[in-house]
Fold:
Amino acid sequence: MLSASVFICGYCPDFLQACISKLPNLESGVWNLIEAEIMKPILFLLLTVFATAAFAQERWTGRYEFEELGGKTSGGTAIIVNHEIEITDSDDGLIALIRGTGFQTSRDLVGNARVEGEKLLIYFNSYNEDNVLEPYAEGDLLLTLERRKGELLTFWGKYLPVVQKNEKTGKVYFTKVKIVEE
Structure:
């Protein structure tokens, strides 16, 4: 039991044992009882926290899409821009690939994502090869997705939609795409 807790949380049993040994009238048999009774709930709590965090991250993995319709140009060309965010899990945490393609748009970004409660915050990391403009700096908050009352809300950061009417933050723009495997 002790070795698992040492591995999981970096807990220092020697320090704790030294502190307990300073208490009057405690024998080594009492230390084993205290260790067992203290470590069980601590280990359970740590495992619960880690499992909850892993589930929270996994819940966000997948592909999200948003299609902007901006009418037509004076020549009759449709103004359509598709935005896609793909969230994957890696050894370093959540990775976000963000693509915006369509009318006069070619964004291809790599970001890091962090889960905070019901929010997914996406930060800029680098540009992919199909990107055209480079207005972002490393660490810029690109956007935040938030689950609230069964909806997926978008809060724009540095990454903005192309069509101005879509710049209102805190609305539903992206939807999670269900992948059907054949």
In short: The chain is about 25% helix and 40% strand. Confidence is low (pLDDT under 50) at residues 1-12. The beta strands are 62-72, 78-90, 93-102, 105-116, 119-127, 141-148, 151-156, 171-172, 175-177. The first helix runs from residue 2 to 9.
